[in-house]
Amino acid sequence: MIKQVSVIGPNKSACTDEIYSLGIQLGQALAQRDLTIITGGMEGFMEAVFKGAHRYENYRKGSTIGILPFLEKERANPYCDVIIPSGIGFARNQLVVSAGDLLIAVGGGAGTLSEIAFAWQFNKRVICYKGLGGWSEKLAGLDLDNRKSNLLLEANSIPAILNILDNER
After folding, report:
1. What pTM was computed for the model?
2. Which of 14, 38, 75, 140 has the least C-beta neighbours within 10 A?
3. Domain CATH code at residue 133
4. Which InterPro entries does the annotation name (predicted)?
5. Which structural domain range is residue 107 located in?
């Protein structure tokens, strides 16, 4: 049963307006399903998802968890309800992945790629958004190697993401 979803994607430096807007819509849709949302807790797409969750009229306080790569809590985006300052740099990507029952990837560069690879190693399904570029689009529907299959699912809209989530629950 899906209760916690890790959402991964670009930080502020690579987050386009279109990706940010999608993040707000996605966050609100996840909050409507009463899911706990986990991200890397920084700006960009991660902030947008949490911002959207907070916009839901029946938002449940404590539903957004940010796992930071550094120790300074004040560097978290303002929509993090729970801030976990890891101090372990990029290794925190493994924590973001392992905390979710399932992942949603939108766009993304090297950090998102590492999280998708961790998800693959941990046998976790990743809903890869197709339509806004990045690693999520490049890997949507593919297998990373021949040892596993059907872990990287493809979705090209928020309703498609929600349909997959509903079928996983």
Report:
1. 0.97
2. 75
3. 3.40.50.450
4. CHP00725 (IPR005268), LDcluster4 (IPR041164), LOG_family_nucleotidases (IPR052341)
5. 4-168
